Every structure is written in C-alpha cells, then in structure tokens.
Amino acid sequence: MYHVLMKTSVRSAARPLRRLLSAVARAARAWQLRRLQRLGLQIGDDCRFNGLPQFGSEPYLISLGNHVEISGNVSFITHDGATWVFRERPGYEDTIKYGRIVVRDNCFIGYGSIILPGVTIGANSVVAAGSVVVKDVPANAIVGGNPATVITSFDEYAERSRERTPHYDRAAYARDKRGELLRLFPRPW
C-alpha cells in the first residue's frame, strides 16, 4: 500500500515538471524552426512537427506546403555527398548533385522517413514510416518502403481507415485519451 501511494505522489509531483519541460521543448523547436526559416526554409500555414526534422545543410532548398505534418526523426537530404569519392577523377572535378525538395499541401510524412534530393511529394499524399523517398510521389498517393512505392490511393486509405476505426466515446477520448484507448485496447495481462 505504501509503495503504491508513494508512486502516486511522486507521479503527481512530477507532472508540473513534465509540463514545464514540454513547454521548454516546444519553445526550443519553435525557435529552431524560425531560425531555419530565416535561412530560407519555406513552411506553409497549419503545419505540424512531431519533433524537429533534420533539414540538412541547405534548408533553403526545402519547401513545405499548407497543412503538412512531419513526424519525428524525418530527414530531408538536399544533396548527394557521395560525389566526393570520384571528384578527383579527370572530368569530374566540378561534379555536384543537389535538388530541391517540395512537399505539396495536405501531406503526412511518417516517422523516420528519408526524403532525398529533387523529390516532390504531391498534394494529399502520405509517406509511411521508415520510407526512403527517392523519386516524386504522385498526388493522392500513399507510399512506403525502401525505395518508396505507391501502396494505395489517398481515397482508399481514408475509406479503410474509417472502416477500421473502433466505436469510441469522443467525449471520453477528449477528456482522457489514455483511458479511452486502454478501454478499447485492454492490456493482455
């Protein structure tokens, strides 16, 4: 009994500290994004970042449209540094490889994805977690894998997601997301 009470009091005492640290982390991300925008990164309206993506050494070659969400640990790579290995060969001394990355409106980039130089991600598209995007993504497409390929259409994905959504109490979810999710998906033991 004492052990349980102690855990509860420690947890409740830690709550304000967690809120403070979360607010500091959000402020640091906002400051970093403003700094990157001053360097030329283009960010449209209503964009969300879960963590701060790696925008590389040329953020001015990256453009994000409106209503774009970027998950954690995403990397935007605007150059190919591997050209260094053959630049000493005659005729290759001036070889460089860069490319603009464009993410159109209403897109989602999943956790750990890598977007390579010269890629445009079309409007209403989703890049699945862990994908390596090496070529353009068409509009209204869901892509995934390494290299990323089209898995399904935006409309098919939306319909499947709606069909698989469990019946849940929206008010309970808004009030206590964790509690409602544990009600829907109870622990196995």
The strand count comes to 13
Uncertain segments are 1-6
**Strand count, sense and closure of the main sheet?**
6 strands, mixed
CATH superfamily of the largest domain: Hexapeptide repeat proteins
Strand content: 15-25%
Strand order of the largest sheet: 2-4-7-10-12-13
Mean pLDDT score: 92
Structural class: alpha/beta
**How far apart, in Å, are the first and last alpha carbons?**
21 Å
Oligomer: single chain
Please tell me how large the radius of gyration is.
21 Å
The best one-word shape is globular
Per CATH, the architecture of the largest domain is 3 Solenoid
* Count of alpha and pi helical runs: 4
What name does CATH use for the topology of the largest domain? UDP N-Acetylglucosamine Acyltransferase, domain 1
The structural domain count equals 2
Q: What is the succession of H and E elements? A: HEEEEEEEEEEEEEHHH
Helix content: 25-40%
Task: Report the top-level CATH class of the largest domain.
Answer: Mainly Beta
Secondary structure layout:
Elements: H1 2-38, E1 42-43, E2 48-49, E3 62-64, E4 68-70, E5 75-76, E6 101-103, E7 107-109, E8 114-115, E9 120-121, E10 126-127, E11 132-133, E12 141-144, E13 149-153, H2 154-164, H3 170-175, H4 177-184
Parallel strand pairs: 1-3, 2-4, 3-6, 4-7, 5-8, 6-9, 7-10, 8-11, 10-12
Antiparallel strand pairs: 12-13
